[in-house]
């Protein structure tokens, strides 16, 4: 307390807090209470158990107290000293007197009680207590506690034998002594326990991001929340946000197992007919194509999050607008595209009521490693396919790497990734395996036995990455694709590689990946804008090798080009196609891809391409149906296989006429003769050859008819610059 010390007749009685050598003014009393030349004051100071300080005074020195001030401050819960200091001039040194000083210490009592969790509370006494206290001195809800721990001489941690009741609980104390064994506390106290809001207690269950054209709902965005708990929850101070905007929710209660609509504040009236609704400003505008939405409690803890995209709609017409995305199974809040779909309600959504797609679709499987990225030689990022339980820290024994590298530390990054710092650097040209155990998804399913390979990528050389297959005339509702092949023994990173159609002037280039994308030796990768439709139309495709492109070059059905640029912008491979490159017996090439025959022959060589087998139609993500590698001797000519059947079944659909010469620059003519010696096909006429290569005969005669079953003679004539001539003859059998 400070009495006076101001100037003139405004001196009052003020409340200060002493922090070491500093005094901080907490509250000011009534001015003038100590403003006379001679003052007789009786002052009373009280502090209650809620740390409310109250000051009273009687300016006549009696006991008729009037309130001066009140202030709540809990900085110091106990004190050990009391004293008086007079600051005065020399003429006043004999004008002070103090009398009737009475310090009434409160009896031993609890001055603070905090609930830590469902079984622990922390209690603080107003005095130091004896350490003779035992568990039989304390009961909670009429059951003795399990354990006691001293924080200091006046603070205890009590561990209950049973979980606290929701709401009111009773703490009963019998026989706790103060430090000097002079006072005994015997009393009971009430405290409330309300379980913490856990992730998944409140869910985002419906998202209306594209309200036009409306099918009956207001043309305004909204989301729907669902209270997935058995408690009424007040959402005051909660936040709904996307990556750029965060809106604060007002004080509103959402009852157990009930819904709440949230929309922009100006749209509240339009949604009232559908149920309980609140508006927020600012409103996080919902992107039509995709967005990342978070619902957080006042402490910033994420209670639920949804990262939606257009491909969550199974009905492509719903993508055009006016249809809400709805969660299918509310007991599977961690599910993503597999647990969401477009509303089937006639008006396009069900704000404030049960979702139209409601069904049982539980998550019964643990997470799966989706990708392993080396951010550098000492850092690994593991991507998993679903949200993880990130409530516990990752231990070193949750991760196994072989060959062993040593793990410095590991941590969750966002809710699907694990970041690992290594002790020893990853070596080049070494294949590593990594596996996880003890990791759970956010529904509690543990990761199954798994092992994924990874390696440090190397700089690719010409011919290491090849264009291997292209579908430029897809079925209706389907999508184009381009397949690449790693024709090397190295690991290659396709980050910042691009594709484009070189036949278009000022062609736009399209990024394959802006993140590390490791291509393993002899791996196929399929580039497409719609992996879902691709696997639906070609179920034998290897979807794990599909790369979803946000957009692709346009490929005409009659002719076009696909070109590949490396991360430095250098042309790495290029292929120009025409519809005429398809097998002549195909009545309709729609839905059938062109496949590369050999990895060794040039991409630009038309004879190195053939239609995929009609029974297969396409081989996205795995070996081509028409692939063939051959071996020829020096200065020789061969036909493989000796018997072929051009019926487009993917087995020996054509004959490969392969050659290897001593010197390049020789001229060749290749002719097919029937059993009577008549020429039926001129495969090459005075064509300049390299050292090695091949031609193909698909069983089509010169007049574009299918040749008859029988034995045919292939005549291979070589003309050298010095005038020499060499002729090879090979027989081949054609059958169907």
Describe what this molecule looks like in 3D.
The structure is a single chain. The chain has 736 residues and is an all-beta fold. The chain folds into six domains: 2-92, no CATH class; 110-193, Sandwich (Immunoglobulin-like); 202-342, Immunoglobulin-like (Sandwich), CATH 2.60.40; 369-454, Immunoglobulin-like; 465-611, Lamin Tail domain (Immunoglobulin-like); 636-734, Sandwich (Immunoglobulin-like). Helix content is 1%, strand content 39%. The protein has a six-stranded mixed β-sheet with strand order 22-21-16-15-25-26, with no helix packed on it. Strands 41-40-35-34-44-45 form a six-stranded mixed β-sheet, with no helix packed on it. A hairpin with a 5-residue loop joins β52 and β53 (725-734).
Q: Which spans of ≥5 residues are poorly predicted at pLDDT below 50?
A: none
Shape estimate = elongated
Structural class assignment: mainly beta
Indicate the CATH topology of the largest domain.
Immunoglobulin-like
What count of structural domains? 6
Q: Tell me about the biggest sheet?
A: 6 strands, mixed
- Looking at the overall shape, the CATH architecture of the largest domain is Sandwich
Which labels suit this protein?
2 helices; 39% strand; six-stranded mixed beta sheet; 53 strands; Immunoglobulin-like; 736 residues; mainly beta; 6 domains
